[in-house]
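Trying the structure run again after the queue cleared.
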Amino acid sequence: MKLNSNSIRNQEFSKKLFGLNSEEVKTFLDRIADEVDLLLRENEELKLKEKELKAQIESYREIEHNLQQTLLKAQENSSKSIESTRKQTQVMMMEAEIKANQIVENAKEQAKKLNEAILNLQEEKNLIIAKLEAILNTQVRIINPEYNFDSSKSIEENLQNVDFLKIDIDKIVESLDNE
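Done. Tokens:
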């Protein structure tokens, strides 16, 4: 049988001769009943508080779990972001290297074309000089059949020794003005 304040207050004892003072027993039982009432109320309050605390603990555990999940996702996202950035950087570096190689190849190709153009121009120059020398030699021979160009000398050097080819420009200009 469970004790409660009512069972304590209503408890009956058998009477004996020269037994205990029933008024003192009754007062004592009332005090015990009041104390048991107080303890039972405190016990109920503690049980309610325990439920509240358990609910709070469960709520905190849920929050902790959510925070752990969020942290894990943040770490995964951070790792993915870092990996993505690393890959993008590699792609950019490879693209830059390819472009640099293309620029170098284009520059080499242009330099090669310029060298070829220079060689062609030098060949054309030499051909034109040779033709001019031939024309001059022919013209000089028409004027003076005994004269021969020295191919080891420049055109200017060959023409310095030809007195009959010296032209007085001032005389030509003067004669044109007189006409």
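The chain has one domain: 5-178. Worth checking whether this holds up in the mutant runs.
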